[in-house]
Amino acid sequence: MGFKCGIVGLPNVGKSTLFNALTKTASAQAANYPFCTIDPNTGDVAVPDERLARIATIASSKQILPTRISFVDIAGLVRGASKGEGLGNQFLANIREVDAIVHVLRCFEDDDITHVEGKIDPASDAQTIETELMLADLESLERRTDQMRKKATSKDKEAQSVLPVMETALSLLQNGEPVRTMLKDIASEDLTILQALNLLTSKPVLYVCNVAEADAANGNDFSKAVELMATEQGAGTVVISAAIEEEIAQLPDDEQPDYLEMNGLEESGLDRLIRAGYELLKLITYFTAGPKETRAWTVSVGTKAPQAAGVIHTDFERGFIRAQTIAYDDYISLGGENAAKEAGKARDEGKEYVVKDGDVMLFKFNT
Protein backbone atom coordinates (compact mmCIF):
# COMPACT_ATOMS: atom_id res chain seq x y z
CA MET A 1 0.00 0.00 0.00
CA GLY A 2 1.17 3.48 -0.82
CA PHE A 3 -0.64 6.67 -0.06
CA LYS A 4 -2.00 9.59 -2.04
CA CYS A 5 -1.36 13.20 -1.09
CA GLY A 6 -3.33 16.07 -2.60
CA ILE A 7 -1.30 19.23 -3.16
CA VAL A 8 -3.57 22.21 -2.44
CA GLY A 9 -3.22 25.93 -1.84
CA LEU A 10 -4.16 29.34 -3.16
CA PRO A 11 -3.19 30.18 -6.75
CA ASN A 12 0.44 31.17 -7.42
CA VAL A 13 1.97 29.65 -4.29
CA GLY A 14 4.16 27.12 -6.15
CA LYS A 15 1.95 23.99 -6.15
CA SER A 16 2.56 22.97 -9.75
CA THR A 17 6.25 23.86 -9.58
CA LEU A 18 6.58 21.61 -6.54
CA PHE A 19 4.58 18.85 -8.23
CA ASN A 20 6.76 18.99 -11.33
CA ALA A 21 9.89 18.81 -9.23
CA LEU A 22 8.63 15.96 -7.09
CA THR A 23 7.50 13.82 -9.97
CA LYS A 24 10.26 14.98 -12.34
CA THR A 25 7.69 15.66 -15.01
CA ALA A 26 6.37 18.73 -16.78
CA SER A 27 2.83 17.43 -17.01
CA ALA A 28 1.45 20.12 -14.72
CA GLN A 29 1.43 23.56 -16.30
CA ALA A 30 3.03 26.15 -14.04
CA ALA A 31 2.01 29.70 -14.88
CA ASN A 32 1.51 33.03 -13.19
CA TYR A 33 -2.28 33.08 -13.27
CA PRO A 34 -5.06 31.34 -11.32
CA PHE A 35 -6.52 27.99 -12.41
CA CYS A 36 -3.70 27.09 -14.80
CA THR A 37 -4.19 23.54 -13.49
CA ILE A 38 -7.64 22.50 -14.65
CA ASP A 39 -7.42 18.71 -14.42
CA PRO A 40 -5.79 17.10 -11.39
CA ASN A 41 -2.38 15.77 -12.36
CA THR A 42 -1.22 12.63 -10.60
CA GLY A 43 2.37 11.47 -10.37
CA ASP A 44 3.84 8.39 -8.70
CA VAL A 45 7.34 8.60 -7.27
CA ALA A 46 9.53 6.03 -5.56
CA VAL A 47 9.92 6.42 -1.82
CA PRO A 48 13.66 6.85 -1.18
CA ASP A 49 14.97 4.47 1.48
CA GLU A 50 18.70 3.85 1.85
CA ARG A 51 17.98 0.59 3.68
CA LEU A 52 16.81 -1.02 0.43
CA ALA A 53 20.22 -0.94 -1.22
CA ARG A 54 21.95 -2.31 1.87
CA ILE A 55 19.55 -5.24 2.13
CA ALA A 56 19.77 -5.90 -1.62
CA THR A 57 23.57 -6.01 -1.51
CA ILE A 58 23.56 -8.61 1.25
CA ALA A 59 20.79 -10.64 -0.43
CA SER A 60 22.52 -10.38 -3.84
CA SER A 61 19.21 -9.23 -5.31
CA LYS A 62 18.96 -8.64 -9.05
CA GLN A 63 16.31 -5.96 -8.63
CA ILE A 64 15.35 -3.29 -6.09
CA LEU A 65 11.68 -2.28 -5.87
CA PRO A 66 10.85 0.66 -3.60
CA THR A 67 7.35 1.42 -2.43
CA ARG A 68 5.65 4.38 -4.12
CA ILE A 69 3.73 7.50 -3.21
CA SER A 70 1.22 9.40 -5.34
CA PHE A 71 0.99 13.18 -5.50
CA VAL A 72 -2.10 14.86 -6.94
CA ASP A 73 -1.73 18.46 -8.10
CA ILE A 74 -5.10 20.07 -7.41
CA ALA A 75 -5.94 23.49 -8.86
CA GLY A 76 -5.70 26.60 -6.70
CA LEU A 77 -8.64 27.20 -4.41
CA VAL A 78 -9.93 30.68 -3.66
CA ARG A 79 -12.26 32.29 -1.17
CA GLY A 80 -15.77 31.08 -1.98
CA ALA A 81 -14.65 27.70 -3.32
CA SER A 82 -17.23 25.92 -1.16
CA LYS A 83 -19.92 27.80 -3.09
CA GLY A 84 -18.38 27.02 -6.46
CA GLU A 85 -16.16 30.09 -6.85
CA GLY A 86 -13.12 29.56 -9.07
CA LEU A 87 -14.20 26.07 -10.15
CA GLY A 88 -14.17 25.19 -6.44
CA ASN A 89 -16.71 22.36 -6.33
CA GLN A 90 -14.83 20.31 -8.92
CA PHE A 91 -11.59 20.50 -6.98
CA LEU A 92 -13.16 19.94 -3.58
CA ALA A 93 -14.27 16.60 -5.03
CA ASN A 94 -10.64 15.86 -5.99
CA ILE A 95 -9.53 16.50 -2.39
CA ARG A 96 -12.02 13.92 -1.10
CA GLU A 97 -10.11 11.22 -2.99
CA VAL A 98 -6.75 11.70 -1.24
CA ASP A 99 -5.42 10.30 2.05
CA ALA A 100 -3.71 13.47 3.23
CA ILE A 101 -3.57 17.13 2.28
CA VAL A 102 -0.23 18.74 1.43
CA HIS A 103 -1.02 22.42 1.86
CA VAL A 104 1.51 24.60 0.06
CA LEU A 105 1.87 28.08 1.53
CA ARG A 106 3.70 30.98 -0.05
CA CYS A 107 6.48 32.04 2.30
CA PHE A 108 8.47 34.19 -0.11
CA GLU A 109 8.20 37.70 -1.52
CA ASP A 110 8.38 38.33 -5.26
CA ASP A 111 6.86 41.40 -6.89
CA ASP A 112 6.76 39.58 -10.23
CA ILE A 113 4.38 36.90 -8.92
CA THR A 114 0.94 38.15 -7.97
CA HIS A 115 -0.82 36.98 -4.82
CA VAL A 116 -4.55 36.40 -5.08
CA GLU A 117 -5.13 38.03 -1.67
CA GLY A 118 -2.77 40.95 -2.40
CA LYS A 119 -0.43 40.25 0.54
CA ILE A 120 2.01 37.63 1.83
CA ASP A 121 0.49 36.08 4.94
CA PRO A 122 0.77 32.27 4.91
CA ALA A 123 -1.14 31.75 8.17
CA SER A 124 -4.04 33.76 6.77
CA ASP A 125 -3.83 31.84 3.48
CA ALA A 126 -4.05 28.57 5.42
CA GLN A 127 -7.14 29.80 7.22
CA THR A 128 -8.76 30.79 3.92
CA ILE A 129 -8.42 27.25 2.58
CA GLU A 130 -9.39 25.68 5.90
CA THR A 131 -12.53 27.80 6.05
CA GLU A 132 -13.61 26.70 2.57
CA LEU A 133 -13.06 23.05 3.45
CA MET A 134 -15.01 23.43 6.69
CA LEU A 135 -17.90 25.16 4.90
CA ALA A 136 -18.05 22.36 2.34
CA ASP A 137 -18.04 19.75 5.13
CA LEU A 138 -20.67 21.67 7.08
CA GLU A 139 -23.06 21.78 4.14
CA SER A 140 -22.57 18.09 3.42
CA LEU A 141 -22.79 16.93 7.02
CA GLU A 142 -25.87 19.00 7.94
CA ARG A 143 -27.83 17.31 5.16
CA ARG A 144 -26.62 13.82 6.02
CA THR A 145 -27.12 14.28 9.77
CA ASP A 146 -30.79 15.22 9.29
CA GLN A 147 -31.30 12.03 7.27
CA MET A 148 -29.49 9.92 9.87
CA ARG A 149 -31.54 11.38 12.74
CA LYS A 150 -34.73 10.23 11.03
CA LYS A 151 -33.32 6.71 10.65
CA ALA A 152 -32.11 6.64 14.27
CA THR A 153 -35.57 7.65 15.48
CA SER A 154 -36.98 4.61 13.73
CA LYS A 155 -34.56 2.38 15.73
CA ASP A 156 -32.17 1.73 12.83
CA LYS A 157 -29.13 0.21 14.61
CA GLU A 158 -26.58 1.40 12.09
CA ALA A 159 -27.94 4.93 12.26
CA GLN A 160 -27.84 4.86 16.05
CA SER A 161 -24.12 4.01 16.00
CA VAL A 162 -23.22 6.48 13.24
CA LEU A 163 -25.27 9.46 14.45
CA PRO A 164 -23.19 10.32 17.57
CA VAL A 165 -20.02 10.52 15.44
CA MET A 166 -21.76 12.72 12.89
CA GLU A 167 -23.17 15.01 15.57
CA THR A 168 -19.75 15.41 17.22
CA ALA A 169 -18.20 16.29 13.85
CA LEU A 170 -21.05 18.69 13.07
CA SER A 171 -20.64 20.44 16.43
CA LEU A 172 -16.94 20.98 15.77
CA LEU A 173 -17.61 22.48 12.34
CA GLN A 174 -20.34 24.75 13.70
CA ASN A 175 -17.79 26.03 16.23
CA GLY A 176 -15.21 26.71 13.53
CA GLU A 177 -12.98 23.69 14.17
CA PRO A 178 -11.87 21.06 11.63
CA VAL A 179 -13.14 17.50 12.07
CA ARG A 180 -9.59 16.11 12.50
CA THR A 181 -9.71 17.59 16.02
CA MET A 182 -11.70 14.45 16.87
CA LEU A 183 -8.77 12.18 16.01
CA LYS A 184 -6.91 12.89 19.25
CA ASP A 185 -9.09 10.72 21.49
CA ILE A 186 -11.35 8.78 19.14
CA ALA A 187 -12.21 5.11 19.70
CA SER A 188 -11.26 2.68 16.92
CA GLU A 189 -14.87 1.86 16.03
CA ASP A 190 -15.74 5.56 15.83
CA LEU A 191 -12.66 6.19 13.70
CA THR A 192 -13.95 3.66 11.16
CA ILE A 193 -17.28 5.51 11.05
CA LEU A 194 -15.56 8.89 10.71
CA GLN A 195 -13.35 7.70 7.87
CA ALA A 196 -16.41 6.41 6.01
CA LEU A 197 -17.90 9.92 6.12
CA ASN A 198 -14.93 11.08 3.98
CA LEU A 199 -14.97 14.64 5.28
CA LEU A 200 -12.42 17.07 3.89
CA THR A 201 -11.30 18.40 7.27
CA SER A 202 -10.90 14.91 8.75
CA LYS A 203 -7.81 14.36 6.58
CA PRO A 204 -4.39 14.97 8.13
CA VAL A 205 -2.60 18.10 6.93
CA LEU A 206 1.05 18.73 6.14
CA TYR A 207 1.97 22.37 5.61
CA VAL A 208 4.70 22.95 3.03
CA CYS A 209 6.37 26.33 3.43
CA ASN A 210 7.58 27.33 -0.02
CA VAL A 211 10.49 29.70 0.64
CA ALA A 212 13.03 31.52 -1.51
CA GLU A 213 16.27 29.70 -2.33
CA ALA A 214 18.23 31.72 0.22
CA ASP A 215 15.86 30.56 3.01
CA ALA A 216 15.77 26.87 2.09
CA ALA A 217 18.15 25.77 4.85
CA ASN A 218 16.80 27.74 7.80
CA GLY A 219 13.39 29.07 6.79
CA ASN A 220 12.25 32.62 7.49
CA ASP A 221 9.77 34.59 9.58
CA PHE A 222 6.88 33.44 7.39
CA SER A 223 7.73 29.74 7.78
CA LYS A 224 8.28 30.14 11.51
CA ALA A 225 4.75 31.55 11.83
CA VAL A 226 3.43 28.52 9.95
CA GLU A 227 5.38 26.13 12.20
CA LEU A 228 3.82 27.78 15.27
CA MET A 229 0.34 27.45 13.74
CA ALA A 230 0.96 23.80 12.83
CA THR A 231 2.17 22.97 16.34
CA GLU A 232 -1.04 24.39 17.78
CA GLN A 233 -3.08 22.30 15.34
CA GLY A 234 -1.07 19.11 15.67
CA ALA A 235 -0.21 19.29 11.96
CA GLY A 236 3.14 18.70 10.25
CA THR A 237 5.40 21.21 8.49
CA VAL A 238 8.20 21.04 5.95
CA VAL A 239 10.25 23.95 4.63
CA ILE A 240 10.99 23.59 0.92
CA SER A 241 12.19 25.83 -1.87
CA ALA A 242 10.21 24.67 -4.90
CA ALA A 243 12.73 26.53 -7.06
CA ILE A 244 15.61 24.46 -5.66
CA GLU A 245 13.63 21.24 -6.00
CA GLU A 246 12.94 22.13 -9.62
CA GLU A 247 16.68 22.59 -10.23
CA ILE A 248 17.54 19.31 -8.48
CA ALA A 249 15.02 17.45 -10.65
CA GLN A 250 16.92 18.50 -13.76
CA LEU A 251 20.37 17.48 -12.52
CA PRO A 252 22.06 14.08 -12.99
CA ASP A 253 22.01 12.01 -9.81
CA ASP A 254 25.77 12.38 -9.25
CA GLU A 255 25.54 16.20 -9.30
CA GLN A 256 22.65 16.51 -6.87
CA PRO A 257 24.62 16.12 -3.59
CA ASP A 258 26.97 18.99 -4.50
CA TYR A 259 24.03 21.22 -5.43
CA LEU A 260 22.31 20.44 -2.15
CA GLU A 261 25.48 21.18 -0.19
CA MET A 262 25.90 24.46 -2.04
CA ASN A 263 22.45 25.47 -0.76
CA GLY A 264 23.15 24.34 2.79
CA LEU A 265 20.95 21.24 2.54
CA GLU A 266 21.72 17.65 3.51
CA GLU A 267 18.85 16.07 1.59
CA SER A 268 16.21 16.97 -0.95
CA GLY A 269 12.81 18.37 -0.12
CA LEU A 270 11.27 15.20 -1.56
CA ASP A 271 12.96 13.05 1.07
CA ARG A 272 11.82 15.34 3.86
CA LEU A 273 8.30 15.61 2.47
CA ILE A 274 7.88 11.83 2.23
CA ARG A 275 9.27 11.25 5.72
CA ALA A 276 6.89 13.87 7.11
CA GLY A 277 4.04 12.28 5.17
CA TYR A 278 4.83 8.84 6.60
CA GLU A 279 4.88 10.26 10.10
CA LEU A 280 1.64 12.14 9.49
CA LEU A 281 -0.20 9.05 8.25
CA LYS A 282 1.48 6.73 10.77
CA LEU A 283 3.02 4.51 8.11
CA ILE A 284 5.99 2.15 8.33
CA THR A 285 8.00 0.04 5.87
CA TYR A 286 8.86 -3.64 5.96
CA PHE A 287 11.03 -5.53 3.46
CA THR A 288 11.16 -8.81 1.59
CA ALA A 289 14.53 -9.93 0.22
CA GLY A 290 15.95 -12.68 -1.96
CA PRO A 291 18.11 -13.32 -5.04
CA LYS A 292 15.34 -12.15 -7.37
CA GLU A 293 14.48 -8.84 -5.67
CA THR A 294 14.52 -6.74 -2.54
CA ARG A 295 11.25 -4.92 -2.11
CA ALA A 296 9.78 -2.37 0.27
CA TRP A 297 6.15 -2.57 1.44
CA THR A 298 4.17 0.11 3.25
CA VAL A 299 1.72 -0.65 6.07
CA SER A 300 0.10 1.35 8.85
CA VAL A 301 1.53 1.42 12.36
CA GLY A 302 -0.10 -1.39 14.32
CA THR A 303 -0.56 -3.74 11.33
CA LYS A 304 -0.38 -7.41 12.25
CA ALA A 305 1.58 -9.98 10.28
CA PRO A 306 -1.34 -11.54 8.31
CA GLN A 307 -2.53 -8.14 7.12
CA ALA A 308 1.01 -7.17 6.18
CA ALA A 309 1.23 -10.36 4.15
CA GLY A 310 -2.05 -9.40 2.47
CA VAL A 311 -0.41 -6.29 1.06
CA ILE A 312 1.70 -8.60 -1.10
CA HIS A 313 -1.20 -10.87 -2.07
CA THR A 314 -4.59 -11.62 -0.56
CA ASP A 315 -3.76 -15.36 -0.65
CA PHE A 316 -0.88 -14.70 1.75
CA GLU A 317 -3.30 -13.28 4.32
CA ARG A 318 -5.97 -15.96 3.87
CA GLY A 319 -3.51 -18.84 4.20
CA PHE A 320 -1.14 -17.21 6.70
CA ILE A 321 0.78 -19.66 8.89
CA ARG A 322 3.69 -17.63 10.27
CA ALA A 323 6.24 -14.98 9.35
CA GLN A 324 9.99 -15.38 9.62
CA THR A 325 11.05 -11.97 10.88
CA ILE A 326 14.49 -10.39 11.17
CA ALA A 327 14.98 -6.88 12.52
CA TYR A 328 16.73 -4.59 10.02
CA ASP A 329 19.70 -3.89 12.31
CA ASP A 330 20.22 -7.62 12.88
CA TYR A 331 19.96 -8.38 9.16
CA ILE A 332 22.64 -5.79 8.34
CA SER A 333 25.01 -6.36 11.24
CA LEU A 334 24.94 -10.15 10.94
CA GLY A 335 25.10 -10.24 7.15
CA GLY A 336 21.76 -11.62 6.02
CA GLU A 337 19.16 -14.32 6.56
CA ASN A 338 21.38 -17.37 7.12
CA ALA A 339 23.65 -15.61 9.60
CA ALA A 340 20.61 -14.24 11.44
CA LYS A 341 19.20 -17.75 11.72
CA GLU A 342 22.48 -19.07 13.13
CA ALA A 343 22.54 -16.25 15.66
CA GLY A 344 18.95 -16.93 16.72
CA LYS A 345 17.76 -13.57 15.38
CA ALA A 346 15.32 -14.96 12.79
CA ARG A 347 12.05 -15.25 14.70
CA ASP A 348 8.91 -17.15 13.71
CA GLU A 349 6.02 -14.81 14.45
CA GLY A 350 2.33 -15.69 14.48
CA LYS A 351 -0.96 -14.00 13.66
CA GLU A 352 -0.79 -11.54 16.55
CA TYR A 353 2.66 -10.17 15.74
CA VAL A 354 2.64 -6.41 15.13
CA VAL A 355 5.01 -5.52 12.29
CA LYS A 356 7.87 -3.15 13.14
CA ASP A 357 9.46 -0.60 10.84
CA GLY A 358 12.40 -2.17 9.02
CA ASP A 359 11.41 -5.82 9.57
CA VAL A 360 12.76 -8.17 6.90
CA MET A 361 10.00 -10.76 6.50
CA LEU A 362 9.37 -14.12 4.81
CA PHE A 363 5.79 -15.35 4.95
CA LYS A 364 4.75 -18.99 5.21
CA PHE A 365 1.20 -19.72 4.05
CA ASN A 366 -1.16 -22.43 2.84
CA THR A 367 -2.34 -22.20 -0.77
Can you describe this structure?
With 367 residues, the chain is α/β, with parallel strands linked by helices. The protein is built from 14 helices and 12 strands. It has a 6-stranded mixed beta sheet, with helices on both faces. Strand 6 (205-210), helix 7 and strand 7 form a beta-alpha-beta unit. The longest helix is centred in the middle third of the chain and has 32 residues, at 122-153.
Return the structural class. alpha/beta
Q: What gyration radius follows from the Cα positions, in whole Å?
A: 23 Å
What characterizes the major β-sheet? Answer: 6 strands, mixed
DSSP summary: helix tally: 14
The rough form would be described as: flat
Low-confidence stretches: 25-38
Strand ordering within the main sheet: 2-4-1-5-6-7
Number of strands: 12
Instruction: Tell me, rounded to a whole number, the average pLDDT.
Output: 86
What percentage of the residues does DSSP assign to strands (E)? 15-25%
